[in-house]
Amino acid sequence: MEKIKQIILISFLFFVSPINAKELCTLTSEEEPDVKITMKYVLASGGGVGTLNYKNKPSLYFEVGVWNGYGGQYYVARSYSSESFTQGKTYVERTKNTEKISSGRFIIFVGNQIGRVIDREERKSGKLRAFMPTLPQGYYYSIPFTEKGEYGRQKLSKEMKTILDASEGFFVDTGGCSKFFGYGGD
After folding, report:
1. How far apart (Å, rounded) are the C-alpha atoms in residues 35 and 140?
2. Residues with Cβ < 8 Å from 87, sequence gap 6 or more?
3. Run of H or E residues at 33
4. What pLDDT, on the 0 to 100 scale, is given for residue 19?
5. Helix, coil or strand: residue 123
6. Residue 64 CA to chain centroid, in angstroms?
7. φ and ψ at 95, to 5 degrees?
8. SS3 at position 27
9. What's the rounded Cα separation, in Å, for the pair 167 and 170?
């Protein structure tokens, strides 16, 4: 019973740990450089919390973490709210005014090798790159149908089209990301 209490306490601390804003990770789309993911380091999870940005303006809340058990990494994209980054709030409090857009595997590559399956000693040197195979579909279906005279799924705005195109490809580390991802360091 004591062991179960310890596991619950550790899990609780993992989910409510504060964000350390001193470190920043930037992943830039290889296809659309106006689309970047910037994350602040989360001490307990080995991932990060931040935003997916279009022309340096937040478009989506973005989070990367490590699955328990198997150990692969996942992402969650939600609608953006500035309240999501208030210090001292739990995950549930920070995201209560947001809507889930997409979630799935966050696959790290080092150069052309998948970071998770190659031992660090056997890795060839290369840029850290990330791929999220379910992001484009989730993002597309989060866009409402086009209303008369408005942008929507049948009439994408420049921002929507650019984010959709970027989400189809790789995001490359353009600053400080190797320490964020357990499988990504050279």
Report:
1. 16
2. 18, 19
3. none
4. 41
5. coil
6. 4
7. -110, 5
8. strand
9. 7
Structure tokens at 29: 């789309």
Beta pairing partners, 100:
78
CA distance 171 to 154: 26
Distance CA 52, CA 63 (A): 9
How far is Cα 49 from Cα 86, in angstroms, rounded to an integer?
Answer: 12
Give backbone dihedrals phi and psi of 22, rounded to 5 degrees, phi first: -75, -25
The per-residue pLDDT for 94 is 80
Strand partners, 52: 37, 60
Q: What is the pLDDT along the chain (186 residues), one digit of tens a residue?
A: 444 433 333 333 333 334 444 578 899 999 999 999 999 866 465 678 899 999 999 999 998 888 776 667 889 999 998 888 777 777 788 888 899 999 999 988 887 766 665 555 665 667 889 999 999 999 999 999 888 888 988 899 999 999 999 999 999 999 888 777 765 554
Contact 47, 177 (CB under 8 A): no
With contact defined as beta carbons under 8 Å apart, do 36 and 24 qualify? no
* Pairwise CA distance, residues 175 & 23, whole Å: 10
| C-beta separation of 184 from 178 below 8 A | yes
Provide the sign of the torsion angle of the four alpha carbons 78, 83, 86, 88, taken in this order: negative
The pLDDT, as a whole number, for residue 69 is: 64
